[in-house]
Design a protein that fits this description.
This protein has three helices and three strands, in the order βαααββ. It is an alpha+beta fold and 108 residues long. The protein has one domain. The longest helix has 14 residues. The termini are close together.
Length: 108
């Protein structure tokens, strides 16, 4: 995995330009909801991720993509949680991007 910025924004005239804001708040809220009903070991992963968000509360606010490099440990944990432990990063194409046409800032 690596932190990178790949610009996929509105340089392509065919893509509709959409105003977007990067924030991990929707993902944080999803984790809270899932954690409340989860009965398996996933609950521990959700708790670990939620602890990271408590450690870095700025991730719940709008942020600039260039600042995501400060949080590689959180991004790696998200990758591990979303892909499982059996997949190697060179076996899949995976990334995190801002909403809409924009930039991929972390991925394989």
């Amino acid at each position: 995995m690596k932190q990178m910025i790949i610009d996929l924004s509105c340089n392509n005239k065919a893509a509709a330009c959409v105003a977007s804001v990067l924030s991990f708040k929707p993902f944080h809220d999803f984790l809270i909801k899932k954690s409340a009903s989860e009965k398996t070991v996933k609950k521990h992963l959700y708790a670990l991720l939620l602890e990271k968000f408590r450690e870095y509360p700025e991730l719940l606010k709008p942020m600039k993509i260039k600042d995501t490099g400060r949080y590689v440990d959180v991004l790696e944990l998200i990758f591990a949680g979303m892909t499982g432990i059996t997949l190697e990063e060179n076996e899949i194409l995976w990334g995190i991007s801002e909403p809409g046409p924009g930039s991929v800032f972390y991925g394989t």
